[in-house]
Amino acid sequence: MEKAGKKTSRAERKARRPQEILEAAFEEFTGKGYAATRVEDVAARLGVTKGTIYLYFPTKDVLFEAMNRHMSAPFADVLASAGTLKGSCSERLQALLLLAYEKVSNDRKTRELLRLALAEGARFPDIVDRHYDEFIAPLFGAVGGLVEQGVASGEFRQGAAASTPDVVVSSVLHITVWRLLFADRRPLNEPAFIEAHIDLVLKGLLQRS
């Protein structure tokens, strides 16, 4: 049994360093924006030298890209779980949308990365492209694949809603942007909003008797 208060070994600290850098980079980039953030700011937050950051991430752009991948990993895990959902296509779609609301709207880090993309996108289009590739496209893919299964099985009808997954997902992004802009002034009744969204989606997709 390890003694309480045992010091972390140098190897353990070294193994944790990349993740610590990426966590610090997230706070700096989302707090100051891409343009205003300097690598030395990330280093100062960690209490290390700028050279330590460059040892793992040779440029600010490489650091930013790695930070995005690191922060999107839990979201990717959520989407990967879509394949393990049980029930009818409508039940699985409802469960997937609830997961998306939880991970996109309710997760501070995901919200702040969207804020960064909105704020910096005009000056740095690559930030928007990366955000789309890491977050939006995988969500569209997971929802679109599930809707296609529903159409193929006859549970969902073919139509505009079935062919445009962005319509199915759009309210997830809407509520996230609303939180960023109006959370302190015009808070939504989020449970009612989510229930209404899912109800509208399913009524638009399910076969009509």
From TrEMBL:
It comes from Neomesorhizobium albiziae. The keyword Transcription applies. PROSITE patterns: HTH_TETR_2. It holds the Pfam family TetR_C_11. Residues 15-75 form the HTH tetR-type domain. This is Transcriptional regulator, TetR family. Keywords: DNA-binding, Transcription, Transcription regulation. InterPro entries: Homeodomain-like_sf, HTH-type_TetR-like_transc_reg, HTH_TetR, Tet_transcr_reg_TetR-rel_C_sf, TetR_C.
